[in-house]
Design a protein that fits this description.
Blueprint: H1 6-9, H2 13-28, H3 42-56, H4 68-72, H5 79-95, H6 100-111, H7 114-117
Length: about 120
């Protein structure tokens, strides 16, 4: 199968869902970024992130949340925090046995959201 999406390369919905759970375990354990989630319903956040990443990685689009700019407005997310979040995503995928080239593709997708999420350079 040629032109597989990142969604396909990651193994589909079940693997993305599992990755998001593991990813948030890392994020919430990291004091440099966990404070961004202090008033967040993490069950809802996890479900929204699973749907968003599924869509962003080329899978079915069931994401009904706000766009990235509106969803992150006023949070004061810094460049360093964004970089840390992307690193946690990469580390999660690596721990799940995802090949480095697919992790790079996933990071490139995440990178497309930087301008809408980072408020403090």
């Amino acid at each position: 199968m040629q032109n597989k999406t990142v969604f396909d390369k990651l193994g589909g919905q079940a693997n993305i869902d599992a990755a998001v759970v593991k990813f948030y375990q890392k994020v919430l354990s990291d004091p440099s970024v966990s404070h961004y989630f202090k008033n967040t319903d993490m069950k809802k956040q996890t479900e929204m992130q699973q749907k968003f990443l599924t869509m962003a990685f080329g899978g079915p689009n069931n994401y009904k949340g706000r766009d990235m700019k509106a969803g992150h407005a006023g949070l004061g997310i810094t460049t360093a925090a964004f970089n840390t979040i992307v690193k946690h995503l990469g580390d999660t995928l690596k721990e799940m046995g995802v090949p480095a080239e697919v992790i790079a593709e996933a990071a490139a997708v995440a990178e497309t959201t930087r301008a809408d999420i980072v408020e403090i350079k």
